[in-house]
From TrEMBL:
The chain crosses the membrane at residues 6-25. Keywords: Membrane, Transmembrane, Transmembrane helix. The keyword Cell membrane does not apply. The keyword Transmembrane applies. InterPro entries: Band-7_stomatin-like, Band_7, Band_7/SPFH_dom_sf, Stomatin_HflK_fam. This is Slipin family protein. It comes from Halalkalibaculum roseum. Gene3D superfamilies: 6.10.250.2090, Band 7 domain. SMART domains: PHB (SM00244). SUPFAM superfamilies: Band 7/SPFH domain (SSF117892). GO terms for cellular component: plasma membrane; side of membrane. Belongs to the band 7/mec-2 family. Signal peptide: none annotated. Residues 27-184 form the Band domain.
Amino acid sequence: MENGEGLVNSLTWIITIAVLAAILLPQMFKILREYERAVVFRLGKFQKTKGPGLIFLIPFIDKIERVDLRVLTINVDKQEVITKDNVTVNVDAITFFRVIDAEQAVIQVEQYIHATSMLAQTTLRSIVGQVELDELLAEREKVNKNIQEIIDRQTDPWGIKVVSVEVRDVVLPENMKRAMARQAETERDRRAKVINAEGEYQAAERLVDAAKMIQTAPAALQLRFLQTMNDVAEENTSFVFMPIPLDFIDAFRGLGGDKPIISPSAKSKGDGGGEEEN
């Protein structure tokens, strides 16, 4: 009987120790990953920041808050914003941040992820409302930088570093899209007309230069005439149009001398006047 009672007592102690170990050991030892830190509170008072690896705690006295030091991502929900030039747009963004001081992130703010998300939303609305639509579309990097600097400055006391903020999408109303399309089309037409006028001006300049060069060397005009004849002869045509140079006509005019040409009617009139005198 005594042996049986001793065995029962031994089993009781073993079971009791096993239960206490199962309860106490998880409270005494914690394993933290490389990117985790544990903010330890002893009887409600901040003790220290521990980790990574195996850490020792006093059971039921020490409490910890795990903090992830990796870069976290917050998706700022799409919201309707009125820009500085009174255009309604829907914008959303992505915020990248990380905890650099686990103690401040736990003690200074209740939920640092939620607080950073709300701050990113309000800052996005504020910055977009201060810029015009053209600046929002053309200078996206500048807008992102302004949002990032403002959020980072306000989250710095929380031990949080905002890595970057990216405005992901800007949705415009349909009437604004059509107006911008018309504006772009008009701008392209204007550029085409300017380029065409510039080409005409340059061509006119070159023609004037060519005329001056031909004027100083008359043989160049004859060569140009022969080249034109050669180009026309290469085509499969049944006729050839040959312009006559003005110099060729002037040569025939010189054959009559300075004597004016008298018409037949004027000549007969002169003869009649002589007979009356006789």
